[in-house]
Q: What sequence folds into this?
């Protein structure tokens, strides 16, 4: 027989199913997010970078045209002979990347001065794709681009372009290598991913950071449809062959201003074996890039990619299986939280779980260079937890109403509240347990029914039953049923009562005292005068929801119940024998017999209550005689055992 425990599977399986559906939906969303959701998810995780205290390699230098340089030499763009003078002072550098375009001609001699300097340096020039001034490449320009393009490619998935903006021809031809300067932003216009290369017509043009690595390390980038390898280093990439870059604190970079470079005491050896990116960072001149750590000059994004390559800290997204493991872990922890009964505790642990998810993402980032888009497991947690709490609230309300409806007629109001609070202890459906059963019945009630009108009889019985039920409820009893003028009560069911036999005896004595007070208004010959016998027995019985599925009946069945009824029936005969013995001069410990208790009940109360044996009592339906005891309720009242 199926039992109903607090938040049992029957009650919670709807939550489990909904949580599983949420898991599948959010997991699918995490694998193929729309662009805006992907950007929002990344924004939630951008705080990871606050935990990055590493510094980029001191091999990298940003030569910047910033505010002091503009104050010294005027607003950008400068005369190209000035630029040539500055670049010439970089001759000790190992690799130089130009994050700038010289796409418009100036005076011929100054353009030629710059071109001559460029031919002497290990320098990489810039190409801007798909810009407003981009145009179709000439055959000569395309041929030169092929010299800078990647050759070890096998159908990679790249951002495509047919147009490009190149330096003017005299400068273009003097540059040993060219590279793309584009950095594609996410949907929220923040730069988180670095494109390794671009399709430019039929050529694969590497980005500036990749080209600087190729020149500086003599290692080539190999691209396939699903992988990227730079030398021996496998690079984590997305579907567009972009890698997620790991930003450093902005003040961690080694920076040299153009104004400092042009000082008479400049030591060119400061840049010996350095990789230098030359670019503009003056706010009024350049486009600042929105990044997860704030506004950065574009050249620093290229340098960040290079620094990640040098210290092997490019960020890898979790694999599909790793992400699924995260979701399943959250799901299992939610299942554990849902086993708790206190809503505030569930809320607190769910909140703690959310914090734990975030810091698990931080730990993966800080220690393993793994990027968990924490938005997705948090979204799953929020959806499942909120839905689960709503479900539990509705289910608890329904269960509370069900319990109150089911037990309010049988159990005292205070116990109904306890039942509602301790619903997990209920086993509706039947279970075998120890309990004490009390049966009471009115003696000689037939004349009363014949002498009283029906309405008066019903009113009289209702007042009597009210008193009896009050006594049952007062001592933690449960009214099982009213059978005509008989009352059946259970103790230790449905709620546990460690002293159920004692409480049943107190109830019986209280019922007899209540009946005595009830009869004060009537003479013994009055048909309103009621007499009662009570039987109490303790033993094992099957207790629970017994009957048809559409007919609720919480009751107990078993030999212990039958014996209780037989003891009640025997009180009349034992009392007659007792009275006859008294008339014959025998000394009896009490004047009458109203309550008989069974052996196990007696063993539970013998040291606390006045009980007198009745040996070898033959009960109807019992093959062998039983021992019973008279419970002296009058002496209990004298001893003030009843409150």
A:
């Amino acid at each position: 027989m199926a039992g109903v425990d607090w938040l049992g599977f029957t009650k919670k399986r709807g939550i489990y199913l909904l949580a599983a559906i949420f898991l599948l939906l959010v997991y699918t969303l995490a694998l193929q997010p729309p662009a805006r959701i992907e950007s929002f998810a990344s924004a939630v995780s951008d705080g990871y970078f606050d935990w990055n205290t590493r510094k980029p390699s001191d091999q990298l230098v940003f030569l910047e045209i910033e505010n002091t340089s503009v104050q010294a030499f005027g607003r950008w763009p400068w005369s190209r002979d000035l630029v040539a003078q500055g670049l010439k002072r970089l001759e000790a550098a190992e690799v130089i990347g130009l994050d700038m375009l010289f796409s418009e001609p100036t005076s011929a001699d100054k353009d030629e001065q710059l071109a001559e300097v460029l031919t002497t340096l290990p320098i990489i020039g810039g190409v801007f794709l798909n810009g407003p001034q981009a145009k179709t490449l000439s055959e000569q320009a395309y041929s030169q681009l092929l010299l800078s393009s990647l050759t070890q490619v096998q159908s990679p998935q790249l951002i495509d372009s047919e147009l490009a903006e190149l330096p003017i021809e005299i400068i273009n031809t003097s540059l040993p290598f060219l590279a793309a300067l584009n950095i594609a932003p996410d949907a929220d216009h923040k730069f988180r991913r670095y494109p390794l290369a671009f399709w430019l017509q039929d050529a694969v043009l590497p980005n500036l950071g990749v080209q600087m690595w190729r020149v500086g390390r003599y290692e080539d980038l190999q691209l396939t449809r699903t992988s990227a390898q730079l030398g021996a280093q496998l690079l984590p990439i997305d579907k567009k062959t972009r890698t997620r870059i790991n930003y450093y604190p902005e003040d961690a970079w080694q920076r040299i201003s153009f104004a400092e470079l042009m000082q008479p005491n400049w030591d060119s050896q400061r840049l010996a074996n350095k990789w230098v990116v030359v670019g503009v960072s003056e706010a009024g001149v350049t486009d600042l890039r929105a990044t997860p750590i704030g506004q950065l000059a574009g050249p620093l994004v290229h340098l960040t990619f290079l620094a990640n390559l040098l210290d092997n800290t490019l960020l890898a997204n979790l694999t599909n299986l790793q992400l699924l493991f995260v979701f399943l872990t959250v799901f299992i922890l939610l299942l554990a939280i849902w086993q708790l009964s206190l809503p505030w505790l569930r809320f607190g642990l769910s909140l703690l779980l959310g914090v734990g998810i975030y810091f698990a993402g931080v730990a993966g980032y800080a220690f393993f260079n793994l990027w968990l888009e924490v938005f997705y497991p948090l979204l799953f947690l929020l959806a499942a937890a909120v839905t689960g709490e709503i479900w539990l609230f509705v289910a608890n309300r329904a269960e509370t109403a069900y319990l109150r409806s089911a037990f309010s007629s049988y159990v005292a109001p205070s116990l109904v509240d306890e039942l509602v609070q301790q619903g997990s202890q209920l086993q509706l459906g039947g279970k075998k347990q120890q309990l004490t059963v009390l049966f009471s019945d009115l003696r000689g009630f037939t004349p009363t029914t014949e002498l009283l009108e029906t309405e008066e009889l019903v009113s009289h019985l209702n007042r009597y039953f009210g008193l009896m039920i009050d006594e049952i409820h007062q001592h933690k009893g449960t009214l099982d049923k009213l059978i005509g003028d008989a009352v059946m009560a259970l103790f230790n069911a449905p709620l546990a009562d460690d002293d159920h036999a004692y409480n049943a005896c107190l109830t019986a004595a209280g019922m007899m005292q209540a009946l005595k007070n009830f009869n004060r208004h009537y003479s013994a010959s009055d048909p309103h005068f009621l007499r009662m016998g009570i039987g109490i027995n303790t033993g094992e019985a099957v207790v629970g929801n017994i009957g048809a599925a559409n007919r609720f009946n919480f009751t107990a069945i078993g030999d212990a119940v039958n014996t209780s009824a037989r003891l009640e029936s025997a009180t009349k005969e034992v009392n007659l024998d007792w009275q006859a013995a008294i008339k014959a001069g025998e000394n009896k410990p009490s004047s009458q017999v109203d309550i008989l208790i069974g052996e196990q009940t007696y063993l539970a109360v013998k040291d606390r209550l006045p009980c007198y044996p009745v040996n070898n009592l033959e009960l109807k339906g019992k093959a062998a005689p039983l021992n019973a005891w008279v419970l002296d309720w009058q002496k209990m009242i004298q001893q003030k055992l009843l409150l």
